Amino acid sequence: MKTLKTYSIPYTGLKLGRHEFDYVVDESFFKEFEYSLVKNGKLQCNVVLDKQETMIILDFHIFGTVELACDRCLSEYNQPVDIHEQQIAKFGEEEIDEDEEIITLGKNDTEIDIAGLIYEYITVAVPYITACSNEGNGRDCDKEMLDRLNELSGGDKKEKSEDPRWDALKKLK
Fold this sequence. Notes:
Layout: E1 8-10, E2 17-25, H1 27-31, E3 40-51, E4 55-69, E5 76-91, E6 102-105, E7 111-113, H2 115-125, H3 143-154, H4 157-161, H5 167-170
Parallel strand pairs: 5-6
Antiparallel strand pairs: 1-7, 2-3, 3-4, 4-5
């Protein structure tokens, strides 16, 4: 968790207005999340914090690549990611039940932890079905691996149809 401390922004000493923060998101970041879909990546995270009287508006721009395993051929590839998100944090003691998209900051809070938000945005940006062709460079899956997988999964259909236990049912047609 020590690694994630660097992803906290102390907002109490900041003046009203816009402030920029830059972070590097890499393997050490993803190791802190035990069951992460993404294990490695090289990303830049630019956060623009706009501090106002009653709230903080955080604008995220996360870009780079994450390392994924192809669902078809099982080879590792780098998936490009370009994320633009916004998060609002309001000052106050009351939790806002209606809209879970807004973070509430109490009077005793001094910093806002953005590690969870960064992790969430990256994880949601990962395609549901990962394939080498998603990389965007025209690369196709490893043909040798796909041929081998098809060979192992297909099997001979003749062997399955020659089961003598089914002969009695075939006569019923």
